[in-house]
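Recall the central idea of this unit: under ordinary conditions, the amino acid sequence of a chain determines the structure it adopts. In this exercise we apply that idea directly, starting from the sequence alone.
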Amino acid sequence: MTTRLHPHHLACGLAAGVAALALAAPAASARHARSNAVSAWNENAGKAAVAACISPVGPSPAEARLYAMTHVAIHDALNAIDRRSRPYAYDARAGRGASPDAAVAAAARDVLVPVLGELSKNLVPQKCVDDAVAGVEADYVAALSALPGGRAKTRGVAVGRAAAAAILSLRSTDGAQALLVGDDQYPQGTLPGVYRFTPGTPFAFAPKLGKLTPFVLRDSSQFLPGPPHAVTDRRYTADFNQVKRLGGDDLTTPSARTPDQTEIAEFWVESAPLQWNRIARKVARDTRLDAWKQARLFGLLNMAMTDGYIGSFQAKYQYNYWRPVTAIRAAATDGNPDTVADPDWTPLEETPAIPDYDSGHAVEGGAAAKILERFFGTDDVRFSTCSTTLPAAESRCGDAATQVLRRYRSFSQAARENGLSRILVGFHFREAVKVGIVHGRNIADRAVNRFMGVVR
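Accordingly, the structure predicted from this sequence is:
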């Protein structure tokens, strides 16, 4: 039986002269696009995910897939106008003089609307979908209204729509709608170390997600990590004691977290696709990437992150390892004399309804940081970012005067902190985090090595 997830678990003569001018300079039109057009639609996709109730806390694999398909279409549309990297799904040449900005808008809109529409089948209420689609349509009207009419605009829209149709067709049989569901009949374990439903979530989310067709991986097991520690292993004991000491809610369960550690825990509760796209968008703007480079960056980033979830869920349900909240409450029966049970132990946030190993959030951070490092040719890039999941509303993204910013000197530093947050919030053992980051980095390397390669 499948279970609909709650959203939290889840955009006359003079006229003839203007037209003639537009047709007289097609080469400039075809080679130039506002660099913020791609960033704008990346941001629009994020707004749509939030409106659709799949972000900032929700079924993040669905969000990652939404972004990946959108940015593949954008990438391929721009490449049809001016080939700069290898296409992914749409390999064609656009008509002379097609508007890149119109192509970007049409590609994004034509992916976002139908993929958002699919969400109400299994994941979220129809109103969430309706609100998200309305926002995308408004963003699309605004984007096209800002462009001059004429053949360039018409051709741009046509190529954008064709690129969108190509990725929609390619992904139409990937199995997402059948796989992105909760299963309240999933068999729970009884032996020490084996996953069972976590408090407040009487189901397992997407136990077959490892079967989802990947974007860049050969298959979901390509970089599968080795098994987690046995519950009698001394390394497990150390991980157990660490999360027990730091991961409590500080209400029912005392915690040794510092105030900064608590901020880290809540800051990175936010959806990994939402946060890492925000980071990529900021760095892309700071470094003044043109539209084509942005399209390649966001395409690689979101394909790798989607496959990060696919690979991680394969590991999760193959190893079927219990969560800290289960392990700590049941420690009296784990056969390890060095672990002490606390039947009332409560994590800082409600534990997601999926097994522990490896940490999907850590995989996402490892994949995103490695994509950014490979794309920019260095890990040592300084940046700051905000979050939408801090407890105080005035501390969240939005108001520049009051929002909390965390600052990083490298992409890998952010990935490490992202991973650490899952221990501090009480969700994962350290081994799941450590292995997850490596898993994500491997996926990112394959994405960059084999897809969307620069041709000039």
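The radius of gyration is 23 Å.
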